[in-house]
Amino acid sequence: MESVYTNVDPTGSFCANIISKKGRNEVQIFPIDKTSSENIIVNALIKKFELSSDDRIRDITWVSAERTSKSDSKRGTKRSKSEEKIDTNDTNESINLIILIENGDLLVFSPFKDEVVDRISNETKLKALTGSLKQQSIVGMKEDNELLEINLSNNKTKTYKFKKSSEDIQTLKSIKYKGNGSTSTPESYNTFKTSSSKIFNIQTIASNEAEALMALTEDGIEIFNIDFETQHLEQKPIGLIKTDFHDSDASILFKNLFTKANEQLIGIWHDRNQPHFSIIDWLLKDIGERIIAIDYSEINDLEIDNNEDDQPNILLPDQVEVVNISFNELSKQLSDFTTKSSLSIWLKWLLTVQGGFISKQAEQHGNLKSLQSGLEKALQGRLQLLKSQADLRSNMHIDDDDDDDENQDDENQTFNESFANQTTLAEESIVYANGENDDFEENETFDAGDAELVEEEEEDDDQ
């Protein structure tokens, strides 16, 4: 089974989108707006369920849930008006989605719940699932190709021998026989012959006027008129439906389809993991080829996938030219080392996100070599600049040390000279208590009488 696929419940009320690849396992349920002719999906009611990386999804199927009877509701608590309205109008709140994971367990999801409703452990490992005519029951295929019917309400099982291969389960899911009894020793034979391309899905579409079988293949939707009274064992398709991007590089193909209440045909196509819904203008009485226009603006109408690795990104036919223009501008910016901008950040993100895709483009090898050469030169220049800055700092540090030493010596010499001069002046200005100074250090000391004579002589001179 494909890693990304859809499954619409039998009533045409919900579409399940399954993503199971690269360790990512996710279940998305899209409510279908059955009353509006313009809106296809009720965006406000979309549900998403993230599973663990070990819960790899193998198969899915829809099953009718157990409903509360009117007698039970009378015995229980009084319900609100909205709940009574749901019960009386018989909406599809009784539909559950059953997921078969790798280890054989069954997960039960409800379109009206935000969490897993139930997880059923199953000792018997199954490899495929389909619905059952019994309420609250499903049918699974075991590894030995036996069929196992499981009642989800009481977990009782019943085994059926089935010697055919598992590929016949898809046939049983697609064809309904309205008869008044059972047949024995049934035979299978080819009634519709499709193209030799891969078949994605098979759906039967019915209206009041006719019934048709639609095979969704790589060549488009091949339409066959169901007429079991015909004498031709192999009927050829009466119509073919394709998108206008079927033969382009984008290659948009319808992988599934369903009808709304007003018999409006809806086709489902994917942009990576993102499902998109397009109205197909086709009536069962139409014949010939029909081309359905796909508007790329539909990609932005519904955002479910928020993982950057799986964002919507259809490769346009002119993307090679856009990539070349980007690399030319990038080369100009890298060749000018004087410019300084946030280009490096943009370049890192570009190579991180799209590096694998760019490296696989043969016409980009020359640009990648130029880019590598430019980055190496820029790196070498950067390293040389850093080395020069380190050497400059080291030399400046040595010069500063030498200057500091010389300045220290000059300061010390100046201080010594200044100190000596100040000491000399201080000694000359000193006056002792006995009237002597340094000039009389070598003279004899006068006694008191000598001092008095000197003073008298000085007074006589003044007179």
The CATH architecture assignment of the largest domain turns out to be: 7 Propeller
List the secondary-structure elements in sequence, H or E: EEEEEHHEEEEEEEHEEEEEEEEHHHH
Identify low-pLDDT runs: 68-92, 171-186, 299-316, 432-448
Q: What is the H level of CATH, i.e. the homologous superfamily of the largest domain? A: YVTN repeat-like/Quinoprotein amine dehydrogenase
The figure for the number of domains is 3
β-strand number: 20
Q: What is the overall shape?
A: elongated
Sequence of strands across the biggest β-sheet: 13-14-15-16-20
Terminus-to-terminus distance: 143 Å
CATH topology of the largest domain: Methylamine Dehydrogenase, Chain H
Counting H and I runs of at least 4 residues, what is the number of helices? 7
* CATH class categorisation of the largest domain: Mainly Beta
Based on helices, strands and strand pairing, what is the structural class?
A: alpha+beta
**Largest beta-sheet characterization:** 5 strands, mixed
**What share of residues are in beta strands?**
25-35%
Global Rg: 47 Å
**What's the mean pLDDT score?**
72
Helix content: 25-40%
